[in-house]
Design goal:
Layout lengths: L1 E6 L21 E9 L6 E9 L10 E5 L7 H4 L9 H6 L4 E5 L26 H19 L4 E6 L1 H12 L4 E7 L18 E5 H9 L7 H4 L4 H12 L1 H4 L5 E5 L1 H10 L15 E6 L7 H9 L7 E6 L12 H13 L4
Helix pairs in contact: 3-4
Length: 345
């Protein structure tokens, strides 16, 4: 069954202080942060886990793994407190889930390739999608073994939708449900992210702000991001990349391998993977104003999920590629939560 729905922005959700619909008393969460070895020697992958303190049994339908996009690490977005001190990771965990996030090598607190300690122009692009898939698979297998389950839920954002989508197409037996947030597919025209063939890039705060607001009508930009969130997000990125924070000006370092893949596949009318291999319920969510992965990409991908037992696409009005930190973020949270909870009905 295919369901396409446009969720319009609601003025009531624009307020910064919104109490999520949870129990009368907040659920106490346990947090663990640690590293998992990748399948390549010497590479350690950063993992964070949050779950209810009272949780003692673990089932596939209540375990979720987040994977990030092409520029920023997982913790600075998925676990940034934006709703009364609650992150998206908290939001899901408080509803009875065992939630994980991970950083692919080259991002956040995972091992950085040696090329990222050298001037960017001295080496070719590092950390492409094939490398990311190896890292992702290592973390999935770690969680399966740790919780003694056969499957888990996956949630990818932007480039992460390519990682999670390609992984699921090859390993549907290990996946319970799949969420593709701002899904990447064949591009019409040129990507807004360009690069010069170097190993990595350094993204300044002003460049990050300009990319975030690209595609947003001028009269809507002021109210899109609630007060304090952009600054808190940027500070979290600086904490996760202390080397980049010492640059002048401070910048987030991000591998360019995924951008090279973008030119070789998504801008060259070549598909990196076959979505018909995905055989699990799948949700696609995209923002109306997403300039990085516009809604036409999700629509094209939806049509190719021919073997998913259920599939749907949701468009969030007045939202961009980074809607999880914007005024309408709770619409995103609720749509995803509804989809995840369906497996228990």
């Amino acid at each position: 069954m295919t369901l396409t729905r446009l969720t319009l922005a609601c003025a009531a959700l624009a307020a910064l202080t919104i109490v999520p619909p949870a129990a009368a008393q907040p659920v106490k969460l346990v947090t663990e942060s640690y590293h998992v070895p990748s399948r390549d020697a010497g590479v350690q992958l950063y993992v964070r886990n949050k779950r209810p303190e009272s949780m003692t049994a673990f089932t596939p339908d209540r375990i979720l793994l987040f994977v990030h996009g092409v520029t920023y690490p997982a913790e600075t977005t998925f676990d940034l407190p934006v709703v009364d001190g609650t992150s998206w990771m908290d939001y899901i965990a408080q509803r009875g889930y065992d939630v994980y996030l991970m950083d692919v090598r080259g991002y956040g607190r995972s091992t950085r390739p040696r090329e990222m300690e050298q001037p960017p122009g001295e080496n070719p692009p590092v950390v492409n999608t094939e490398v990311a898939l190896r890292d992702f698979g290592a973390v999935v297998d770690h969680i399966l073994e740790r919780r003694r389950v056969a499957r888990i839920n996956l949630l990818g954002w932007s480039w992460g939708t390519l990682i999670a989508g390609a992984y699921t197409a090859q390993n549907s037996a290990k996946v319970e449900r799949l969420v593709l947030f701002a899904p990447l597919w064949l591009r019409q025209g040129v990507s807004p992210l360009r690069f010069d063939g170097s190993a990595y890039r350094a993204v300044t705060m002003e460049a990050a702000r300009a990319r975030w607001l690209a595609g947003v009508p001028a009269d809507k930009q002021t109210d899109l991001i609630p007060p304090g969130i952009f600054e808190a997000w940027w500070n979290a990125n600086m904490e996760a990349d202390p080397v980049g924070a010492r640059r002048t000006p401070p910048a987030v370092r991000a591998p360019n391998g995924a951008l090279a893949d973008g030119m070789n596949y998504w801008e060259a009318d070549r598909r990196y993977y076959d979505p018909s291999g995905i055989r699990v319920p799948t949700l696609l969510v995209v923002g109306e104003w997403d300039a990085d992965t516009p809604p036409y990409m999700a629509q094209a991908l939806l049509a190719r999920l021919a073997n998913a037992p259920s599939r749907r696409m949701v468009i969030i009005g007045e939202a961009t590629h980074t809607m999880l930190l914007e005024k309408n973020r709770l619409q995103l949270f609720r749509e995803v939560q509804t989809f995840l909870d369906e497996s228990r009905r």
